[in-house]
Design goal:
The chain is an alpha/beta fold. The protein has two domains: 41 residues, no CATH class; 302 residues, TIM Barrel (Alpha-Beta Barrel), CATH 3.20.20. 40% of the residues lie in helices and 14% in strands. It is built from eleven helices and eleven strands. The strands form two sheets. The chain has an eight-stranded parallel β-sheet. A three-stranded antiparallel β-sheet has the order 3-4-5. Helix 5 links the parallel strand 1 and strand 2. The protein is globular. The two termini are 22 Å apart.
Length: 359
């Protein structure tokens, strides 16, 4: 079965999931879940182009050799070498909100020594006629309250399985996406998402596990899924207007960058730093994606006089796809920031990594 067939049928024909799993592995299924739209897929994005005000990246052919020498020197100087080993957290594409299942997931994370951001992706926003929620990666609807209870199970499992006296902690983010939200109001969906983030935080305090787990939100933002931008903007505005006080992590892509891509610089900046709760945990699956995010950081610094608020990087490596390792993805982004900034990076990227997969 071709990848495109899997993409188009995952939501409409549940049993096809089994065929996809057999063909591509669990790690690929979650990536395909959002691509069920029968409309033609957008054309492949062209290679990223750096913004024109970066002189070192628009060299004439005669100066190409000099530019390459500069690039190699900057990469050698700014290649990050962590002082101590840092492990990636495991984020998950969720197919259930069962509190018992998620409690087991949290316990496993604690036993691995997970620290940092953990994103539980519950699928695209949806509405069942009376309740806002999402479409899970099993194809079933889950209401917002059910998602919150499932996340509380994860938090209890994590805190309960930590060694006695442990100070480990995670930021547990309820994840969704901007893929064709099927809701009456995307703005209201954003407000309700924020409300449940606060509800989870109250439950964490009541359970006395808030010293180990804090509540957050996350959004897999892909410009190709919302070329007009307005649905994504409305969700973010709804979240911001709730004055939630908790981060909303953008763990998406730039789909061609900000020069030849789908969104302009202002739109990409808004969902990564411009909205006051927005933080970026960008997908870095290859060098091109690192170049795109570094270019956005340069624009943010030059045009908006603000450093892009990176909170780490995301990968999607599995034993079968041999994708980029989390630490290598971090190095790619840090190096590219230094190259495009001529040795002066426009933003800092914490040594924080998360690798997302199916459970």
């Amino acid at each position: 079965m071709s990848i495109e067939n899997c993409k188009n049928l995952l939501y409409t024909r549940g049993p096809i999931v089994l065929a996809c799993v057999a063909s591509f592995g669990l790690g690929s299924v979650a990536t395909l879940m959002y691509a069920h739209d029968p409309s033609p897929a957008p054309a492949a994005a062209p290679a990223v182009r750096r913004v024109a005000f970066l002189p070192q990246l628009v060299a004439l052919p005669k100066a190409a050799a000099k530019v390459q020498v500069h690039v190699r020197a900057v990469r050698r100087k700014h290649d990050p070498k962590p002082q101590a080993p840092s492990r990636a957290t495991i984020s998950l594409y969720e197919s259930t909100t069962d509190a018992g299942v998620l409690r087991s997931q949290g316990c496993e994370a604690a036993r691995r020594g997970a620290e940092g951001v953990v994103i539980l992706d519950f699928g695209k926003p949806s509405y069942n006629g009376s309740t806002y929620g999402t479409i899970l990666f099993s194809g079933r609807f889950a209401g917002n309250r059910s998602i919150t209870q499932g996340m509380l199970g994860y938090a209890r499992g994590y805190a309960g399985c930590l060694p006695k006296g442990s100070t480990d902690s995670i930021s547990l983010a309820r994840g969704t996406s901007n893929y064709h939200p099927s809701v009456p109001s995307v703005y209201k969906a954003g407000r309700k998402w924020a409300r449940e983030v606060m509800n989870l935080q109250r439950s964490l305090r009541a359970d006395k596990v808030d010293g180990h787990v804090t509540s957050a939100a996350a959004d897999d933002v892909e410009p190709a899924w919302d070329p007009t931008f307005w649905r994504t903007r409305d969700f973010y505005q709804g979240y911001a207007d709730s004055r939630v006080g908790h981060s909303l992590y953008n763990y998406g892509s730039l789909d061609g960058g900000i020069v030849s891509g789908i969104w302009n610089a202002h739109q990409a900046f808004y969902v990564t730093t411009g909205m006051r709760y927005a933080r970026a945990i960008p997908e870095i699956y290859n060098e091109v994606m690192a170049q795109e995010w570094a270019a956005l950081a340069q624009v943010a610094k030059k045009r908006y006089h603000t450093a892009l608020k990176f909170a780490g990087v995301m990968t999607e490596r599995t034993s079968s796809n041999h994708g980029v390792k989390p630490q290598d993805a971090h190095r790619m982004l840090v190096r590219e920031l230094a190259v495009q900034g001529r040795g002066r990076a426009a933003a800092n990227v914490p040594s924080a990594y998360t690798n997302i997969k199916s459970y």
